[in-house]
Design brief:
Elements (H helix, E strand, L loop, with lengths): L41 E3 L5 E3 L3 H25 L5 H18 L8 H7 L4 H14 L14 H26 L5 H25 L12
Antiparallel strand pairs: 1-2
């Protein structure tokens, strides 16, 4: 399957761009989820390149997909507890769609039309910083290392943070190679901070205990 906005990526970019086929003169049939185009171990970027599925672009796209899925799970747990930040998590998932679009458009082969369609601005980074500051002001100061804990919402947000860090590690080499927008790496960096603060906030709002690191006795 092609892996970019408008070309039908499974995962963070959805399936909206796939061209469904139907019989001539017959009612439109149900869409097929498979295309067989990736059976040989290659897939396409938004710019039309065919690259091995082990290419670092697809590694970064896969990590971004996992991140969106992890945040979706955290959002479901948080929704069950009535947290008001669930809408923010949904917005983050939408931004990860744009992250994927940018990653799937390697700048080395992108035309100007590609770049305009998949550009990534600084605005969502600044928004994350505003959210971080807002929640941080309501939290008690950190006095020890926090372990992933604090109830299901908090633990799921901590897990999302860890996946976010991995996604960032996949994206940074692409940015350093001039293949992706630096704002994408900055966004993921700030997102991990947001998820950490949000995990603490969720634990506090639910009255759950945050477990701390205790050094084992020698």
């Amino acid at each position: 399957a092609a892996v970019a906005a408008g070309r039908g990526l499974r995962g963070p970019l959805g399936m909206a761009g796939r061209r469904w086929r139907s019989g001539v003169g017959s009612p439109e049939r149900a869409p097929r989820i498979y295309t067989r185009t990736g059976d040989s171990g290659f897939s396409s970027t938004f710019t039309g390149e065919r690259r091995p599925k082990g290419d670092r672009i697809f590694e970064a796209l896969g990590a971004t997909d996992e991140l969106s899925s992890a945040i979706g799970l955290a959002g479901e747990f948080s929704s069950e507890k009535g947290h008001t930040f669930v809408d923010q998590l949904h917005k983050v998932q939408c931004m990860l769609q744009d992250v994927g679009s940018n990653l799937a458009t390697p700048l080395s082969s992108a035309r100007e039309a590609h770049r305009k369609r998949t550009s990534f601005s600084e605005k969502p980074i600044l928004e994350l910083e505003q959210w971080i500051d807002s929640y941080s002001e309501q939290l008690p100061p950190l006095r020890a290392f926090i372990l992933p804990s604090g109830g299901r919402s908090s633990a799921a947000l901590h897990f999302s943070r860890a996946v976010c860090r991995r996604a960032e590690r996949c994206v940074v080499p692409l940015v350093q190679a001039g293949e992706a927008d630096p704002n994408v790496a900055k966004y993921l960096n700030r997102l991990s901070d947001y998820l950490f603060v949000l995990a603490r906030y969720a634990a506090m709002k639910e009255g759950k205990e945050e477990k701390i690191y205790i050094k084992p006795e020698p």
